[in-house]
Amino acid sequence: MVTATLDHTRFAEDWQQWHAARNDALRQPLGWLSLTALHWLDENPTEFDEAPGSWHVDGDTVVHAAGSQVVTYAPVEGAAGLEVRFERGYVEIIRRTGRFAIRVHDRNAPALVAFTEVPVYEPDTKWVLTGRFEAFDESRTVTTGAVVDGLEHHHSAAGLVRFGHDGSEHTLVAFGEAGGPLRVLFTDATSGVTTYPAARKLDLGIPAENNAVTLDFTRAENLPCAFTDAATCPIAPTENRLPFAVEAGERNPRTPQNRE
User: What pTM value is reported for the model?
Assistant: First the structure.
């Protein structure tokens, strides 16, 4: 159902603040736009142009040798990476689906230097919808693929969100923990056309006492993989592929017409 009581002036002001905050976050000197490389590691010590020293896997650890110093790291599966600082930024050591890799963050990355703002659809209150959250009896784990072939992501799913659009009911699997804020990963008929094909993210907040949730699609966000090939983002679960075009929120920054 479309929320009919929105203050349109306040809505526009709040959306502009959200959009400005998103742009500011992406401008951070060592954020996602600073990623310049993703290198998968094996047992053979290897040097990379973008990262100091040599790197290799030893069992469940990553070994970094720089000069006479040798340090061992044990990144956690699926978690944020461990950081090794160097002059221009840092190397992030990650573990994904049992594989180890390093990602290089460089404050002089071309994508960061060239960034102005995220392309978006013009905000329209018709895309602020009301849904209802239905909690699972027990939290479930939903496994999705990733933008990198062979990787998996495991999400804690709290329940379903049901909402109406254009006379039909639709359902999305909501990730999060019981009693906490919810989020969804979704695709729609714009995916791969004007929006990034793998998924967009929508934060839903904490459901109200009557289990109502707001789906403000004007704040649908790109995942980091929309901006860099060095990310390992999940794709949307099959249950969350909407059949209609959500012409709201962030557009694909890789599409030339979206940058004009």
Answer: 0.89
